[in-house]
Amino acid sequence: MAENLSTALQITVIGMGLVFGGILILWGLMSLLLRLTTPKDEITEVPSTGDAATDEAYAQKRRVAALAVAIALAHERDQQKPQPFPMPPTAIVSAWQAVMRTNQLRRRGTR
To answer: Where are the domains of the chain?
Structure first.
């Protein structure tokens, strides 16, 4: 009996080791592929022309873009609010169902 239990535990440990080893290998492969295929972010600096009017126009465009993003996010947030549940177009039990149920109850009679 103890030998069977020992064999079962050995098989369990070996199986779990293989599973977790496979998971770790897949994790390593995914991180390696991610490093190899992700494009590097290049930092682009805005060329400063030294012209105050151009710099002011650029700052104005950035403000307008930020405002547009803020409005879009606020509109999206309002759309995500729960809407009131619409009332069903008919009653839960239609007139036809009520008549048919009444007929069935009448056929059964009183008990």
So the answer is: 1-37
Q: What's the CA angle centered on 25, arms 20 and 27, to 5 degrees? A: 95
Spell 39-55 as b/e; 16+ CB within 10 A means b.
eeeeeeeeeeeeeeeee
* Per-residue confidence in pLDDT tens, the chain, 111 aa: 889 999 999 999 999 999 999 999 999 999 999 999 988 877 666 556 667 778 888 999 999 999 999 999 988 887 777 777 777 676 678 888 889 989 998 998 766
Residue 76: Cβ-neighbour burial (10 angstroms; 0-12, 13-18, 19+):
exposed
CA distance 46 to 76: 31
